[in-house]
What we know:
The protein has helices at 13-41, 50-63, 66-102, 106-126. The chain is an all-alpha fold. Helix 3 packs across helix 4.
Amino acid sequence: MTYSGSIPKEGNFIKSALIVALLNFVFCLVAGLVIFTFIFRYGATPDAGLGLVFISLPLIFANMGVSGQIVAFLFFVALIFAGITSAVSMLEPLNTWLIDRFCFSRTKANILTISVAYGLGVLLLLSNTASYQ
C-alpha cells in the first residue's frame, strides 16, 4: 500500500509485488542463516527479540576478534538503515493523506509526521521510567 502509489500507471503491480516479496524472503532467509550460524558456532543462546540483537550478538562479535568488530559495525549500520526505512514506510501513508487532503507540501507533511512520531516516541519511552509513572 505504501509504495503502490509510486508505481506509474503503465507499471505492473503484480510483478513488482512478487519481486519485492521474493527479494524480502531471500534476504530474510540468508540473514537468518548467517545470524544463527554465528550464534550456534560461538555457543550463544538464541534468545528472542532485543536480547538476541543487543546482548547475544555483541558477545559473539567480541569473540570473533578484529573481524568481529568489522562485522558488528556493518551489522549495526544495516540495522540502523532497516529502522529508518521502516519508519519511512510507516509514515508515508499519513504523508500522502496530508498532501492529498490538506494540500501540504511533501516537506511540510514530513516535518509534521516526523515531529508527531518523535513526540509520541518520547512519551512512550518516558512511560517506561519509574520517575514518569
